[in-house]
Write a structure and sequence with these properties.
Elements: H1 6-23, H2 45-57, H3 59-64, E1 67-74, E2 78-85, E3 91-97, H4 104-126, H5 129-139, E4 141-142, E5 153-158, H6 162-170, H7 183-198, H8 206-224, E6 228-233, E7 238-241, E8 246-248
Antiparallel strand pairs: 1-2, 1-7, 2-3, 3-4, 5-6, 7-8
Helix pairs in contact: 2-4, 4-5, 6-8, 7-8
The chain binds zinc ion.
Length: 251
């Protein structure tokens, strides 16, 4: 019997967390709009593309600040860009008051452009890029936000191929049922339960019984050597990693 790995502990915790969160109404990750359709993370493709475009626009600014990590978040009042420079243990928070009727991405664009303008203005005065960067970081410096809060955790998710996902569905198993001890028994139990319905001897469908056997076999194989995907991200906040120069959506 395989011991429960630390990865599984983390994952189970995450799933419980996300299941609880799932009961709440989801908001569009880009604009915060309510009442999304089930399973959707954005209100529209345009909305997602818009925020991604503005976030990529922010990369120039993050480069001049030598950002190790950054985070973008918003509420009803502000959009916020938190920056943790490579050389610092403390965060600088750039914020911009929300404009009524505008999406957070629009206000983030204004924040980025305003900060960039200010940066160029200081360079004009002082003739030093590093001075300008340091000046802005100091001006927006805060000790109220712990640096740890914008360092993305390594979250681990189980990874299934397309046919494994179909097998899971066919066996009527939920992902979380495979994350605790006794998952092999759960696969077997599910198989036995469905075999009573699909077995040709009890008048079941031969084709479905064959599919059931295949699904059973496939999930047992998965359980022997489970695959996981590691993903760096923050809960409820867009995160930027300076080492890859990439923004990642919230978990
Ligand atoms: Zn949206």
């Amino acid at each position: 019997m395989r011991n429960k790995s630390p990865e599984l502990e983390i994952m189970t915790g995450d799933l419980i967390h996300s299941r609880k969160a799932g009961r709440k109404k989801r908001k569009c990750l880009a604009c915060g709009a309510n009442s999304l359709k089930a399973g959707r993370r954005y209100c529209s493709r345009e909305c997602r593309e818009h925020v991604l475009w503005v976030l990529s626009l922010s990369k120039g600014l993050l480069k001049v600040f030598n950002a190790r990590y950054a985070a973008f978040s918003f509420n009803d009042e502000y959009v916020m860009l938190d920056v943790l420079p490579v050389w610092s243990k403390e965060i600088s928070r750039f914020q911009y008051r929300r404009t009524s009727g505008k999406k957070p991405a629009e206000d983030l664009k204004s924040l980025v452009l305003k900060s960039a303008e200010e940066w160029y203005r200081i360079i004009d005065e002082k003739n030093s890029k590093s001075y300008a960067s340091l000046f802005l970081l100091k001006k927006n410096h805060t000790t109220e936000i712990p640096a740890e809060s914008i360092k993305p955790d390594r979250k681990i998710k189980p990874r299934f191929s397309k046919s494994e996902k179909e097998a899971l569905k066919f066996l009527r198993l939920k992902i979380e049922e495979l994350l605790s001890d006794g998952h092999v028994q759960k696969i077997r139990y599910s198989y036995k339960r469905l075999a009573k319905i699909y077995h040709p001897d009890v008048g079941g469908d031969e084709e479905k019984f064959k599919k059931l056997n295949e699904a059973h076999h496939q999930m047992l194989m998965w359980a022997e050597n489970p695959q996981f995907t590691a993903r760096k991200a923050l809960v409820g906040t867009w995160s930027y990693d300076g080492s890859t120069n990439r923004w990642t959506p919230p978990l």
